[in-house]
Design a protein that fits this description.
Blueprint lengths: L1 H20 L2 E6 L18 E3 L8 E4 L9 E5 L11 E6 L12 E11 L7 E8 L5 E10 L6 E8 L3 E6 L8 E8 L4 E6 L2 E7 L10 E8 L4 E12 L2 H22 L5 H12 L1
Antiparallel strand pairs: 1-15, 2-5, 3-4, 4-15, 5-14, 6-11, 6-15, 7-8, 7-14, 8-9, 9-10, 11-12, 12-13
Helix pairs in contact: 1-2, 1-3
Length: 280
Amino acid sequence: MNTRRTLLAFGIAVVHIMQSQAGQVLFQSGFEAPDYVAGQTIVGQNGWIQYWNQDSNSTIITNQVAASGTQSFKIDGSLMTGGPYGNGNFYYPYLGFEPIANNLPMIDISVDARIDLGSTHANSVLGLEVYNILGMLVAKIELFSIFNDSPPRMGLIVESSNTYQDFEISSSNFGQFMNLALTLDYASQKMDYYLNHQWIASANMQVSPSFGLGECDLTMHTESDTVGYFDNYSVTAVPEPAAFISTGLGLLMICVYSLRKGQSTAPWAFENAWYDKILF
């Protein structure tokens, strides 16, 4: 009985320590009530900022379309009146995260994005753009539409300070949410790009972690009546895999040692504790 209690105590410790290693959520939002009010601009709600001081009427929280839940963030191209690069804008919560002060973690960034084509013949870009605290570009992953072709074509752009690649995507994905994701590894200075949870490309970061992570923008550029939607936005700092594994293995060895020392007559006790830890 004492062995089983000891293992239970160790199991609880393992769960809490491994959970603490699982990641620090820097920002997360599904744009749901009560934090977000449908029918109102996103600017000013729950810390969201607009880089360009126009077009606030074009950016609202809507309950018409959502990847999950009942609400999403909508950008209406027909209402955009200008921006730093044509009709476009950037929307973000300021992060100001310091990777060096946090032992150079990996940063996982993810959002569900959707392009609904309008009737105006013009190209559009919709996606994620990441900048450090000095405003320098770290990475982009964006969907784009080429409306001048018939029928309109859809593609994906991945970009960093020294890399640019584009890929064609089936036009059947217009009007569908697609997951865009980036992983920034500040220790190795590598980045990975994902579309719908599948790896697409890698690149060198080329931006010093000492400049921090300033913002992860949701952005749209268009001169048409195309409409963009975002949902399930998250930015998470995750420990380096090596640190996570070594922590888990060390705690496992402690548990195994305790089991042997106690000479438990119930071999299933440790197994169940291990499975419960994984499923917790």
